[in-house]
Please model this.
Amino acid sequence: MSDHATDPATETFVAHRNLLFTVAYEMLGSAADAEDVLQETWLRWVEVDLGQVHDQRAYLVRIATRQSLNRLRTMKRRKEAYVGPWLPEPLLTAPDVAQDVELAESVSMAMMLVLETLSPTERAVFVLREVFDVSYEEIAAAVGKSPAAVRQIAHRARRHVDARRPREVVSASKTRAALESFQHALETGDLQDLIGVLAPEVVFVGDGGGVKQAGLRPVIGAEKVGRYILGGTGKAKGTLTSEPTMVNGNPALVLRLNGEIDGVMATRVEDARITGIYYVRNPAKLSRVESETPLTLR
Model:
């Protein structure tokens, strides 16, 4: 695409690339699949007669949405065969993403898991309407439904998400403070300090993809989670270190074993305590964290 920098189709696509990637990622929970959707969108976009397109942004979003819906059906089969809990692929994001509170919440690990409970069409409608404020008419064209049907789907999806989303949207600074306390307890191996930063009902979810050990089911409760985490780090063969980063619009930790990335740990924070811990160890989901430039999204 770089050889055609003055081409109108390319200029429009590049201008909206971050938006299209974010739409695809929020629908799929996989950065690798979102990139594939972008490629498929581009191939279809260059065949379009731009003179017949009234709103190029809306048209591109429509293509990306349709390609994402097609891929969601393929991913469903992959997830059914997945070993252990499935977590979204961690997305390294620029610090300024956290300033857009709505966007940061929408791509957070906790919210991405809520979106997993929606049907493909519900997920597309929710993402386009609630996150990107796309009109019902444009969404209808993207998902192949009438505007009236889309309104009903949006209402149903919103009610479903509201019943499961975090009770409060916590600022990045409060999340960072809780994470710093967690990191200190992790480094010192102090169980009581660790339990102190965890909410009583905290849930730990690990994703090893059958390649790395991560537990086949969630661990629930502050003491159980604390012992589980320290038990795991205590068995590490080598030097385990942690460093703060920004993942999915929120503060997170990258854990390294002997300098090599071992996993990414994201958290959900409410009332200054950690209520959810999401630890991705599957190597197939970590390559972008190690190699990619942080994304600005939108």
About this structure: Strands lie at 198-207, 219-220, 240-247, 250-257, 260-270, 273-280.
